[in-house]
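Re: [ENG-882] Designed sequences occasionally contain unexpected residues at chain ends

Forwarding the minimal case from QA. Structure tokens:
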């Protein structure tokens, strides 16, 4: 790993993996994540500034996803994985919607909790497929992709 990531001479993964061992790493991780957020904002700005034939902008036609494969680099867990969907997609996604589902602990394939309303990352991917009119009904093991997140879809 070890690539230079914007403002620091370290990459995200080894930096995040040091969090519990070294509280000073938070500053470095904050700088890395701020760099990513600024790059994401710049991309959205440029898409919004780029007109397309027939009116509107490139952002109006786009679906940009920014997220992570886990929420805690130290333990590589997948409890509360944050995702941002920047939209246009021709009005097919409800904008300004925050989706927050109950936590679950899945370690080594063993499910330690199963709160009511538990949802999985694969369901976000199914939602994206549905918004983009891709006929996809499953991603990965069946227990992780029960349905799209319909509250994100217009109509």
């Amino acid at each position: 790993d070890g690539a230079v990531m914007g403002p620091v001479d370290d990459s995200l993964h080894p930096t995040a993996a040091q969090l519990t061992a070294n509280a000073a790493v938070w500053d470095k991780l904050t700088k890395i994540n701020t760099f990513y957020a600024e790059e994401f904002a710049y991309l959205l700005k440029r898409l919004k500034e780029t007109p397309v034939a027939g009116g509107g902008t490139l952002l109006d036609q786009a679906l940009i996803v920014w997220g992570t494969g886990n929420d805690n680099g130290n333990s590589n867990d997948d409890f509360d994985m944050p995702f941002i969907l920047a939209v246009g997609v021709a009005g097919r996604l409800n904008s300004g919607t925050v989706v927050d589902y109950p936590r679950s602990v899945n370690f080594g394939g063993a499910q330690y909790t199963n709160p009511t309303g538990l949802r999985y990352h694969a369901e976000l991917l199914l939602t994206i497929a549905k918004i983009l009119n891709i006929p996809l009904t499953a991603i990965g093991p069946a227990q992780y992709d029960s349905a799209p997140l319909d509250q994100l879809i217009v109509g």
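QA comment: On inspection the terminal residues look reasonable. Confidence is low (pLDDT under 50) at residues 1-5. Proposing we downgrade this to a documentation issue.
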